[in-house]
């Protein structure tokens, strides 16, 4: 173009020059620009935080603890847990809550475990599986493989409650079971009714607020192994069930300590959240497909007790709960079911040492539902929140072969088990009394 040539001051001439400039730019420049825009879009859509981790030197984010200022649970137990007082850094190539959550469910890299199954018969005629992983099953010692746990065994037992449509075969449950047994404790996974390959034998199905099975299992284990301290871990929906059970029974639970990981806390808030954005709707759809698969396994009962046509046409968890859960559980609406089953209102009534772990970027269970105030008010509860971690993932290390929350829970249980409080607690249980010493008694740690 001749710069000395006069430029006509008209819109048409300006657009003509602009068009010439646009077509003069090489095509591959446009391709790079589109690629960059797509990368920015996907980076924000999937909530990646790799660049933030890079600029902060991969130092990770501090674990934030919420607890009562006069809590002896914190002073006597949690203060000794290095994991809870450290920082959490997600595996760099999994630096997205969505990638972490998906990787856990589709790959997970679980260790190899071999459970010993026990069929449990509930008082209402229901049957479900208790899958045991004993400490000597993973210790490399083969002399005790065919032996059962003796009734006077003092080895702690950790009861694990899986999440929605999950069972003992889920990758995160294998991670937790293997690592806990590796620490020298016995593990039992209490599978939900109708899962783990066991058929439903009554007209009762589990749901997010169903605490009856957990209550019966805990009571049975305490009676069967009275010398063994009982600890309980609930994950996702299982965490909601656990906290609700602890709150319902208050001081009358034979549990030495508990942990709730990635709990939804308030199901009503969660039901709104999971339909809010595109990715959340994908999770909603995926979980609904899982529930429909569960219903398909037990179609004869569901088709009689619920609206089978509605179950098949469900496109969300709310749809499934409306056509199935509410009808089977005698709830008026899905909202009434969510209000009745949410565990957040039961936190103030929990009287056993409880550790709660949640990630603020959890794409399934929103941080909006985390009961910060309730946890701060209860001296028996400590809440640990991390900036990242996804839903039940919390992968750490370059290889991404371990889960941070599994390490944190095991360390908490070990610190609790070795604390002076355990002696007083076990004596009360062995004596068969309902009295349990309050964990916030200052005399315990003097």
Q: What's the quick description here?
A:
The chain has 446 residues and is an alpha/beta fold. The longest helix has 20 residues.
Beta content comes to 5-15%
Q: Give the SSE order as H and E letters.
A: HHHEEHEHEEEHEHEHEHHHHHHEHEEEHH
Query: What is the mean pLDDT?
Result: 91
Q: Biggest β-sheet, characterized? A: 9 strands, mixed
Record keyword descriptors for this entry.
446 residues, alpha/beta, Rossmann fold, 2 domains, 9-stranded mixed beta sheet, two-stranded antiparallel ribbon, 17 helices, 13% strand, disordered C terminus, Hydrolase_4
Characterization of this structure:
This protein has 446 residues and is an alpha/beta fold. The protein is 41% helix and 13% strand. It is built from 17 helices and 13 strands. It comes from Olea europaea subsp. europaea.
């Amino acid at each position: 173009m001749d710069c000395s040539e006069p430029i006509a001051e008209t819109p048409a001439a300006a657009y003509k020059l602009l068009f010439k400039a646009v077509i003069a730019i090489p095509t591959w420049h446009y391709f790079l620009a589109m690629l960059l825009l797509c990368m920015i879009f996907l980076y924000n859509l999937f909530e990646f935080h790799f660049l933030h981790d890079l600029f902060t030197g991969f130092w990770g984010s501090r674990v934030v603890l919420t607890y009562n200022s006069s809590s002896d649970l914190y002073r006597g137990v949690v203060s000794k847990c290095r994991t809870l007082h450290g920082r959490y850094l997600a595996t760099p190539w999994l630096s997205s809550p969505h990638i972490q959550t998906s990787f856990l469910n589709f790959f997970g890299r679980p260790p190899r475990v071999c459970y010993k199954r026990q069929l449990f018969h509930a008082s209402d005629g229901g049957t479900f599986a208790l899958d045991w992983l004993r400490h000597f099953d993973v210790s490399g010692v083969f002399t005790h493989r065919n032996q059962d746990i003796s009734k006077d065994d003092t080895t702690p037992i950790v009861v694990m409650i899986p999440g929605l449509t999950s069972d003992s075969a889920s990758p995160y449950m294998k991670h937790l079971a293997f690592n806990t047994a590796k620490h020298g404790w016995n593990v039992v996974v209490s599978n939900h009714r109708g899962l783990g390959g066991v058929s439903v034998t009554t007209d009762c199905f589990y749901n997010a607020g169903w605490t009856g099975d957990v209550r019966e299992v805990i009571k049975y284990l305490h009676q069967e192994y009275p010398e063994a301290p009982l600890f309980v871990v609930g994950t996702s929906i299982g965490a909601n069930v656990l906290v609700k059970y602890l709150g319902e029974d208050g001081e009358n639970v034979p549990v030495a300590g508990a942990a709730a990981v990635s709990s939804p806390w308030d199901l009503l808030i969660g039901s709104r959240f999971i339909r809010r954005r595109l990715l959340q709707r994908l999770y909603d759809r995926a979980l609904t497909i899982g529930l429909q698969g569960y219903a398909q396994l037990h179609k004869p009962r569901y088709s009689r007790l619920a609206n089978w046509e509605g179950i098949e046409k469900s496109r969300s968890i709310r749809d499934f709960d409306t056509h199935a859960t509410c009808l089977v559980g005698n709830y008026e609406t899905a909202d009434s079911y969510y209000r009745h089953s949410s565990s957040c209102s039961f936190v103030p009534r929990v009287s056993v040492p409880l550790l709660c772990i949640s990630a603020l970027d959890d794409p399934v269970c929103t941080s909006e539902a985390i009961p910060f105030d309730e946890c701060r008010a209860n001296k028996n509860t400590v809440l640990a929140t991390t900036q990242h971690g996804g839903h039940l993932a919390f992968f750490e290390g370059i290889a991404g072969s371990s889960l941070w929350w599994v390490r944190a829970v095991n360390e908490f249980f070990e610190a609790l088990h070795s604390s002076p409080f355990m002696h007083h607690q076990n004596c009360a249980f062995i004596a068969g009394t309902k009295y349990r010493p309050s964990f916030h008694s200052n005399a315990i740690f003097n």
